[in-house]
Design a protein that fits this description.
Number of strands: 18
Strand content: 15-25%
Order of helices and strands: EEHEEEEEEEHHEHEEEEHEHHEHHEEHHH
Shape: globular
Largest sheet: 13 strands, antiparallel
Structural class: alpha+beta
């Protein structure tokens, strides 16, 4: 029976229109900026680095005078801290700054005489009546580092100081709405600990060196909408990757912050209709690790949808003056995906820092045409499924597709048992189909699934169309035949009678003589490494084999 495959030639780069939409404004969350202070006086050039008149040198002398021993860290260096940007504390609680230090990436000397410098870390903490320290919700961490051209890395290469010499400072904080606010908090902390005269921002700060290192915006939403939101992110991952212009990461794994459900990182969000940016943007859904144990009234039970600035692959970081533009882009990505996922204002969850349904509204440009983009995407992938299922030289791929479709997802064990294919053959074809956008591999142990529910439904139709008369007993019979062929080849291998020709398993790297074999492209090895290993005797010659029957130019070397 012949089956026509869908037409090729879909236009992946068609223009996506936008329309003005409205959604509750996502809350700014984590943020970080960097500054460089050109506070190295030329007259100090000949003095030892740690005795120069810079903010960094001042912090080192402070550590020597006040802390003096790394065993005492974290050391409380300021108590009863008050800033107008800090929320009030409860009774018996006060804000303090603690100081820690760590080996830095550069220092002086070389070889055995190399000595690393130490950067200084000011951290805001809450302290209770018993002296216990905890990290507050409004966090602040200020890192202070040297910028001297006579410093070197341990390998002897000179430290680069693209914005001149002096002191580099970086501040990481939460719940700040502007870049200027982050910088203000940073200098508030420095002056509180090291004195009002510790830094002269107007005189020393290099404006070109004011860079954004981190920015985040999120919403918290009802857990009942989580599955829809995850599906939406996965669709965006597929559509961006379908454009063929970017590298994408998608993970389902546990992190320290909780359970990360889905993530996509790319610098090509313009493929979905957003304005093009020269930096990477990350979009993810995550929850606190113990969300399942929390009550339905606890806002921390519900997940967050968060977009964040994820760095620059090539070129300069955004300037602090671009903060509003960066944050607006992140908010648009969150709001757009929330609407695509069917999340409405009433689905939002209020907590201590996000107003939920009461959050103020914002207007933004929402990309249109997602439905047609997804439809074209699924047509392309459906074409790939047709091609794989119709392979004339093997039914192995058809059987894998059929099992995953029937089971709505299958483990490697299930695929191996139902198809009779060797484990390596199953892994090989699953990897190929994942690269082609047909399968996704989730969890550990791995569950093989179609990349979306829509594609699962379409795959079920395709496998029925390709072989409408195929019955369960037919697949079982093929599986038994494959297992028997492998057993026969194993017997031959044990008798040293040579290796049998491959057949329906299509280059099946089976378990000969009870040993594990794997496809070369699934190994973390380069061709020259295999050659060197053979030449040096690290690999036995009879442990490496090559299929040669398709290649007339290869001399068999035997009669």
């Amino acid at each position: 029976m012949s089956v026509e495959t869908p037409a090729q030639g879909v236009d992946h780069d068609s223009v996506v229109d936008c329309e003005t939409s409205e959604f509750p404004r996502p809350r700014a969350h984590g943020a970080a900026v960097m500054n460089v202070l050109n506070d190295l006086d030329p007259s100090d050039r000949d003095r030892k680095p740690n005795s120069r008149n810079t903010l960094y040198a001042r912090t080192i002398q402070f550590w020597r005078d006040v802390v003096a021993d790394h065993e005492q860290e974290p050391f409380v260096v300021a108590e009863d801290v008050e800033h107008d940007w800090l929320p009030s504390t409860g009774s018996g609680i006060e804000y303090v700054y603690v100081l820690t230090s760590s080996r830095w990436k550069a220092g002086t000397g070389e070889g055995d005489d190399y000595s690393a410098f130490y950067d200084q870390h000011l951290k805001l903490r809450r302290m209770d009546e018993e002296g216990g320290l905890s990290k507050p919700a409004t966090a602040l961490h200020v890192e202070i580092m040297p910028q001297y051209r006579d410093l070197v890395y341990k390998d002897g290469n000179a430290l680069e100081c693209p914005f001149g010499e002096g002191t580099k400072v970086r501040a990481s904080t939460t719940w700040a709405e502007s870049g200027d606010e982050i910088e203000r908090r940073m200098y508030d902390a420095i002056r509180t600990v090291y004195g009002e005269d510790a830094v002269d921002v107007g005189r020393d700060r290099n404006d070109d060196a004011r860079k954004i290192a981190k920015a985040e915006a999120h919403i918290r939403f009802a857990i009942e909408k989580k599955a829809q939101a995850i599906e939406t992110i996965e669709q965006s991952k597929q559509l961006i990757g379908w454009g063929g212009h970017s590298e994408i990461e998608a993970h389902q794994r546990r992190l320290q912050e909780g359970w990360l459900e889905a993530r996509v990182v790319s610098d090509r969000w313009d493929l979905l209709g957003f304005q093009g940016k020269r930096y990477d943007t990350q979009l993810k859904i995550y929850q606190t690790g113990d969300f399942a144990e929390r009550s339905v009234d606890d806002p921390l039970r519900d997940p967050k949808l968060e977009a964040s600035f994820a760095g620059v692959d090539d070129g300069a970081l955004p300037h602090v003056d671009e903060w509003d533009e960066v944050l607006q882009h992140l908010r648009e990505v969150v709001a757009t995906h929330a609407q695509w996922a069917g999340i409405e204002r009433t689905d939002l969850t209020a907590d201590d820092y996000f107003d939920g349904p009461a959050a103020p509204s914002m207007e933004f440009e929402k990309p249109q045409g997602r439905r047609s983009m997804l439809r074209r995407r699924y047509e392309d992938v459906a074409t790939e499924i047709y091609k794989e299922a119709l392979k004339t030289n093997t039914e192995a791929v058809y059987d894998i597709l059929k099992v995953v479709a029937e089971e709505s997802g299958a483990s490697y064990d299930t695929l191996e048992e139902r198809t009779g294919l060797a484990r390596s053959t199953v892994r090989y074809h699953v990897a190929r189909l994942a690269e082609n956008g047909v399968f996704a591999r989730l969890g550990n142990p791995v569950l093989v699934v179609f990349v979306s529910r829509q594609l699962l439904d379409r795959a079920k139709e395709i496998v029925r169309e390709v072989h409408p008369d195929d019955q369960a007993e037919d697949m079982q019979e093929r599986a038994e035949e494959r297992r028997q062929r492998r057993e026969d080849r194993d017997d031959e291998a044990r008798d040293h009678d040579g290796l049998a020709d491959d057949s329906d398993d299509e280059n099946d790297a089976s378990d000969c003589a009870g040993n594990d074999w794997e496809y070369f492209d699934l190994l973390d090895l380069e061709p020259h490494q295999i050659a060197n290993a053979l030449e040096r005797g690290y690999l036995e010659e009879d442990h490496v084999r090559l299929r040669i029957d398709p290649y007339d130019w290869i001399d068999r070397g035997r009669s």
